[in-house]
Design a protein that fits this description.
Elements (H helix, E strand, L loop, with lengths): L12 E7 L7 E9 L5 E5 L17 E8 L2 E3 L1 E5 L2 E5 L5 E9 L1 E4 L2 E4 L4 E3 L7 E2 L7 E5 L7 E3 L3 E3 L2 E7 L2 H5 L3 E4 L2 E7 L2 E8 L6 H19 L6 E9 L5 E3 L3 E7 L6 H16 L26 H18 L5 H16 L9 H6 L12 H4 L3 H19 L6 H15 L6 H12 L4 H8 L7 H6 L3 E5 L7 E2 L2 E6 L2 E7 L4 H5 L6 E5 L2 E2 L15 E8 L2 E8 L1 E2 L5 E5 L5 H11 L2
Parallel strand pairs: 1-13, 19-20, 20-22
Antiparallel strand pairs: 1-2, 2-8, 3-7, 3-12, 4-5, 4-8, 6-7, 9-10, 10-11, 11-17, 13-16, 14-17, 15-16, 18-19, 21-22, 23-32, 24-31, 25-26, 27-28, 27-29, 29-30
Helix pairs in contact: 2-3, 3-4, 4-8, 5-8, 8-14, 9-10
């Protein structure tokens, strides 16, 4: 056991001071003071990943000038691992550590500092003493010139907005901090105080946000029966091409396009992102797979259940917007069918199971390459579709008495509130079975751990809808390549598994020069007049060398489904439809 783990929380005091003397050059300077030590060595560690974003990101790569002192004198520090610094603390009760952090990656999961503001994603800013993850700490922010506000879910100390307290490191690392001149929009929902910290400007309507976001919050809280937060913060980074989000226990970080709020599609997209990340405060931050907490910040934390944590949340982001009537029914159904088309048209759907996609997030989802579509699926996408068909089946089989909402509420109350722990694979399956009213072994075998095709028409049929393929009956040929144009040239960026190009050897990075000796300038027209079975000669430049490939065209296999109502829905179908769509 590490010597530090034997020390009580009361015996050690840990505080940080963060300054920005070179904000214009993207640096923060961190001073860490530790008192009450009683150990021979002190190992200080920086996390290698941030919860909610399943990739080892090596945050210690941005640390510079790591030094330590005690009793006014410099003491030796030694880096013993990629993210660990060791200090000889024998006979020392207090140590001061200083280091700089370079922060110039603006995303929802990484820190960013410039002269206009500072965003601190705390896993990449604060080192922690090994064995002391359960210790509290305070963070004092000394703002750069002109910065006047701090936005974070961490509690203030003595009503000082620039001094915050974390009860332990899990909370500190789960509480991003925005410092600058952000526009703060405040409102109340029940007993919970909400803040939106708008960074970077934008054409948003403050009053419209204050009217619409509470609708989302209220519907999500109603699913679980409570809102566990007294204070919640949305940190929104508005940029020219923003996107993405990351959930936290009592806050979230959103990336948005500053000029998109005024369009219907842009505004709806923002609200969908709000619905997704806010839903996570229950699903994954509290109701969670058992391995996702307490966290190991040194290495990957594997689970096969990200299809629940993220996929179900992706399903609910649209369902909640529909419940608020911010999504018309047709728009919602369009989102559903778009998810179906994405999955069915992805060749990786025949290769990677949903459980495998969850487990391998660490090495695949955040590291796509030219073959990703051929070999993987996205657990957000297929997980959302699993939630869809389970929801429809539960509603149908219970004749409208239950829905997936009841599963989520039951699991939240049972595991987060009562057992005070995460759930196992088997336990979530049991929760589903409780409301499905049947054993789901076969369902899991086919769709979670297997590669069976999903009969979406069957499940949508419960609500009186049918799937129609707009491409059905076509006999169009397909080459099977994805291309990009650059400087008047056309390059292959992807080759579809089992397509004509795949079989006959067209490669990614090939420059397509001509087909049947006709120069290619537009890939949309190159197969005009062709049919499946025709043989063509594809001339390419591969690594600068000319090559002609004989290719036999195959039939286009893509589908383009649309959802339509059956002509005369039954009473049972209308019961399901009304429950599902909140009509």
């Amino acid at each position: 056991m590490n010597a530090a783990s034997g020390q009580t929380k009361a015996s050690v005091n840990i505080s940080y001071t963060v300054t920005f003397p070179e904000a214009q050059a993207h640096y923060a300077e961190v001073e860490m003071d530790i008192t009450g030590l009683r150990q021979k060595t002190l190992d200080l560690k920086m996390p290698v990943w941030t919860p909610g974003s399943y990739l080892v990101r090596e945050f210690s790569k941005n640390v510079e000038s790591f030094t330590a002192e005690a009793k006014g004198k410099t003491i030796e520090t030694k880096k013993i691992r990629k993210n660990t610094w060791r200090i000889n603390s024998e006979k020392l009760s207090a140590v001061k550590v200083k280091y700089k952090v370079y922060a110039f990656e603006l995303s929802v999961r990484t820190s960013y500092i410039d002269a206009s503001h500072g965003f601190l994603s705390c896993t990449g800013i604060f080192v922690y003493p090994e064995g002391m993850l359960h210790h509290p700490s305070t963070v004092h922010i000394v703002p750069y010139k002109g910065w006047t506000k701090v936005s974070t879910s961490l509690d203030m100390v003595n009503n000082d907005p620039f001094t915050r307290r974390a009860p332990d490191y899990d909370i500190l690392y789960d509480s991003p901090i925005e410092v600058g001149t952000q526009d703060v929009i405040a409102f109340e929902v029940g007993h919970t105080h909400y803040e939106i910290a708008m960074v970077g400007g934008g054409n948003y309507d403050r009053e419209k946000l204050k009217a619409d976001m509470p609708k989302i919050i209220e519907h999500e809280a109603a699913i679980y029966g409570e809102n566990p937060n007294n204070h919640y913060v949305f940190i929104v980074h508005n940029t020219s091409r923003g996107g993405g989000g990351l959930e936290h226990l009592s806050s979230c970080v959103l990336g948005a396009s500053r000029d998109n709020y005024a369009t219907e599609a842009g505004y709806r997209g923002f609200l969908t992102l709000v619905a997704h990340e806010h839903f996570h405060l229950w699903n994954v931050k509290r109701l969670r797979p058992i391995v996702l907490g307490p966290f190991d910040y040194d290495r990957e934390n594997y689970t096969t259940d990200l299809w629940i944590a993220e996929g179900f949340t992706a399903y609910y982001q649209d369902k909640v917007i529909r419940k608020t009537n911010l999504y018309p029914v047709d728009t919602y159904l369009g989102s559903v069918v778009g998810n179906i088309n994405t999955l069915v048209n992805q060749p990786g759907n025949k290769i990677e199971t949903l459980a495998e996609a969850s487990y391998d997030a660490w090495i695949k989802l955040y590291r796509p390459n030219e073959n990703t579509a051929n070999s993987t699926i996205n657990y957000y996408n297929k997980g959302a579709l699993m939630a869809l068909i389970l929801d429809l089946e539960i509603i149908n089989d219970s004749r409208g008495k239950y829905s997936l909402d009841d599963v989520m509420r039951y699991m939240y109350n049972t595991y987060y509130k009562t057992k005070k722990r995460g759930y196992t694979d088997a336990e979530f399956k049991q929760g589903l079975e409780k409301f499905a009213g049947r054993n789901l072994d076969e369902f899991y075998k086919k769709y979670i751990n297997g590669l069976d095709d999903i009969d979406f028409g069957k499940y949508l049929g419960y609500a009186g809808y049918k799937l129609t393929d707009e491409f059905a009956g076509n006999n169009d040929p397909a080459l099977g390549v994805v291309t990009i144009a650059s400087n008047g040239k056309i390059f292959v960026s992807g080759v579809v598994r089992n397509s004509a190009a795949w079989i006959d050897g067209v490669n990614v990075n090939d420059e397509i020069v001509s087909i049947d000796s006709v120069k290619v300038t537009d890939m949309n027209t190159v197969l005009n007049g062709k049919k499946p079975g025709d043989k063509i000669n594809v001339s390419v430049l591969r690594d600068g060398l000319p090559l002609t490939l004989p290719v036999t065209l195959l039939k286009k296999t893509q589908v383009k489904y649309k959802i339509e109502s059956v002509a005369q829905p039954t009473d049972q179908q209308m019961l399901v439809r009304k429950k599902w769509l909140s009509l």
